[in-house]
Design goal:
Radius of gyration: 29 Å
CATH topology of the largest domain: Trna Endonuclease, Chain: A, domain 1
Strand order of the largest sheet: 13-14-15-16-18-17
Number of domains: 4
CATH architecture of the largest domain: 3-Layer(aba) Sandwich
Helix content: 40-55%
Number of helices: 16
CATH class of the largest domain: Alpha Beta
Distance between the termini: 53 Å
Largest sheet: 6 strands, mixed
Shape: globular
């Protein structure tokens, strides 16, 4: 099933190194022969094939040797073997006689799998009345993984990876959706446009519903096991079956509260049974007898003073405990991210790569550019930017006429973020295009002109003339050249604005990372003071390693955390 058919493998191999050698042993006229194919990146459209010659080996097969290897830190991370296990899990399950090794280690997903469930989904109806079948595999892992939804062909081989975008707290999982429809999209080179392909979105909606149902059932199952464990340890405050429907409802409410206490109270799982029994008794008392007992619970279990008890009680009348914790965590994580970003762009600017590292980190933290924007496109050509915009307006793109700059090139933009302006002009849109430069590269005249050419290409396209859309372009790096700074400091203009054309509805800014980071900190300062939270290098780097480890420079991944407090 893995046999090549699209001609892509010979080119993808160049992602690892400059030179390729394919050695093949095959049967010819009853005997074994061998031949080689050689390729080099500098002449990647040319391959040299040797003549067949007799072979002394006894087996058929192909060996690929890649030389002049490019440095790939992602292949040397500790979780690389786990990533291979995630990627090939359905394939290795389907073909148990196949063995896959990486760096001498056999890839065996079964060692890390906690649970695997299969679902055959009902027929999915697409546009035009077309129907397709799909099969969903959900694998829950014993170790922490990056949640992914793999789009696979009917045989279970991954063709594309995307984000599941479902809520499943505390579960480490990977999902695989298998369908002939996905193979058809891949053949059309349309599978990568997950967020913009209408039929693919229609296909994925029931898939996500099935995932949500799976984790709802799993959460209930985990809860039942937890309650059963409490009963076995004789810390559960209720005995026997419920006396009536009132006590049954009371137990259901208690279970929810007890699960939240066990989840959010630090070290609860390590409490002795006597302490757990005491806490649960107090919790039950507050439900069954007198709400004032809640103060006693907060005092005995959570250790809050009287004033803080009253403040928390008032808050809980307006919101939930989990919401309070989530809000505080968002602010703390953002403060840590800003500290980590500052370290990244200033202390590691000489080794930080623009597209492979900085771009991938920033595209998941678009709040730094403004809360009003949400990410719609990442690392796409100007034509894709236009296609996304026209789709928002309910119009189609004629792909025979791509968006071009003055020199005829199409160009690549890093991030496109979008805002729909509130009433009274609901059809008015603002698009923010962010051009990220490597931190070690200053924004000079050439870089500024590049952004201006992008903006002019979009604004001059005739397909925009009848739309009520404003385009804002940012060029971002550590430093700005003096000649560009002169353009950014003009009378009666905000600092950083180098071009403002109301007729074409385009504005172009140059901004330094220092300005962006300080602006974000100013927005968060009030909440930081009220939280009494101070971010340090250790917590900042720990957060970056946790959520963006695959995109960090080697030195930053392997650095001993104890050495960060300098």
């Amino acid at each position: 099933m893995l046999h090549g058919r699209a001609g892509k493998g010979r080119f993808r191999a160049y992602a690892l190194g400059e030179s390729l050698l394919f050695k093949t042993w095959t049967r010819v006229d009853g005997g074994l022969s061998e031949f080689t194919i050689r390729g080099n990146y500098s002449e990647r459209m040319t391959y040299r094939v040797s003549d067949l010659s007799p072979s002394k080996t006894k087996q058929t097969g192909t060996e690929v040797i890649i030389g002049e290897v490019v440095n790939h830190p992602s292949l040397l991370r500790e979780d690389t073997v786990q990533e291979f296990a995630q990627h090939f899990a359905p394939y290795l399950h389907k073909y148990p006689n196949v063995s896959l090794f990486y760096d001498g280690i056999r890839i065996d997903p079964t060692r890390s799998i906690d649970l695997q469930k299969e679902y055959s989904l009902p027929e999915i109806e697409l546009e035009g009345g077309h129907k397709t079948k799909a099969h969903l595999t959900v694998i829950e892992w014993k170790t922490q993984v990056e949640r992914s939804l793999y789009l696979c062909n009917a045989e279970g081989f991954p063709l594309e990876r995307t984000v599941p975008r479902i809520q499943a707290p505390h579960f480490q999982f990977t999902a695989y959706i298998k369908s002939d429809f996905l193979q058809e999209l891949d053949d059309e080179n349309a599978l990568a446009m997950v967020d913009m392909h209408t039929n693919l979105q229609k296909f994925l909606n029931p898939v996500k519903d099935a995932l949500r149902n799976h984790f709802r059932e799993r959460a209930a199952e985990v809860s039942r096991k937890l309650v059963d464990g409490w009963k076995k340890d004789e810390v559960y405050p209720y005995k026997g079956a419920p006396r009536d429907f009132v006590e049954e409802a009371e137990r259901q409410v208690f279970d929810v509260l007890a699960l939240n206490v066990s989840e959010y109270l630090p070290g609860f799982y390590e409490y002795e049974n006597k302490s757990k029994k005491f806490a649960f008794s107090l919790l039950r008392q507050s439900l069954a007898e007198n709400p004032k007992a809640l103060r006693r619970i907060l005092d005995e279990v959570l250790g809050l003073g009287k004033e803080k008890q009253e403040e928390l009680a008032e808050l809980l009348e307006r919101t939930s405990l989990s919401a309070i914790i989530n809000a505080a965590k968002i602010v703390a994580d953002r403060l840590d991210f800003l500290a980590g970003l500052e370290t990244l762009v200033f202390d590691y600017k000489k080794v930080l790569l623009e597209r492979k590292q900085l771009h991938r980190i920033v595209e998941e933290q678009t709040w730094i550019f403004g809360e009003e924007f949400h990410l719609t496109l990442s690392d796409r050509s100007l034509t894709s930017v236009l296609e996304k915009h026209l789709a928002k307006l309910g119009r189609n793109l004629n792909k025979q006429h791509p968006v071009q700059r003055a020199d005829g090139s199409t160009g690549i933009v890093d991030l496109m973020l979008s805002q729909t302006v509130p009433q009274p002009r609901e059809d008015e849109n603002v698009h923010l295009i962010v051009e990220l430069k490597r931190p070690s590269q200053r924004i000079n005249s050439e870089a500024a002109q590049q952004v201006i050419s992008y903006a002019n290409a979009v604004a001059s396209d005739e397909r925009f003339k009848s739309t009520n859309t404003a385009w804002v372009f940012w060029a971002v790096s550590n430093e700005i050249d003096e000649d560009v700074q002169l353009m950014a400091e003009q009378f009666n203009r905000p600092e950083g604005l180098i071009l403002d054309n109301p007729r074409k509805q385009i504005r172009i800014w140059v901004k330094s990372w220092g300005q962006i980071i300080e602006s974000c900190r100013a927005r968060l300062k009030f909440f930081q003071q009220k939280l009494e939270y101070s971010s340090d290098n250790e917590s900042a780097l720990k957060l970056l390693r946790k959520i963006h480890s695959k995109y960090l420079p080697d030195d930053m991944q392997t650095q001993d955390e104890s050495s960060t407090n300098v």
